[in-house]
Design brief:
- The chain is mostly helical and 121 residues long.
- It is 67% helix and 0% strand.
């Protein structure tokens, strides 16, 4: 909560990027420039998230082995559902297929499941 509020206050203090919401600025100027690197970064984060969430089970022995499997499965399913949802919404709203939307949805799914990945069954 503290980090979220601090981020919100900081964003309000700084304001939007210069030229981001001006009517004279073309819409494609702030589009992702290298979609390949966006995808690579997303894959690296997704892979690392398994170690982060799975490592939170505190040891791979005994009953924790089953818990790590559940955590990793929940992590994967949440990311996939987030990416698919973002892609479908982008298609329905903007009538365009966007790989960047999939990547953003994947990361949103990963962030969303992190706190309760061991409790979601």
């Amino acid at each position: 909560m503290c980090g979220g509020v601090a981020g919100y206050v900081g964003a309000q203090f700084l304001g939007p990027r210069i030229g981001r919401f001006d009517k004279d600025t073309p819409l494609d100027e702030f589009a992702p420039h290298n979609v390949g690197l966006v995808c690579l970064g997303t894959i690296v984060l997704w892979f690392g998230w398994f170690g982060f969430n799975g490592g939170s089970a505190l040891g791979a022995t005994g009953d924790n082995q089953e818990l790590i499997q559940i955590v990793c499965m929940n992590t994967c399913i949440s990311a996939a559902c987030g990416g698919l949802t973002a892609f479908i919404l982008k298609m329905l709203v903007d009538k365009v297929e966007s790989v960047a939307a999939i990547c953003n949805g994947l990361l949103a799914g990963l962030v969303g499941i992190t706190a309760g990945c061991d409790a979601a069954d």
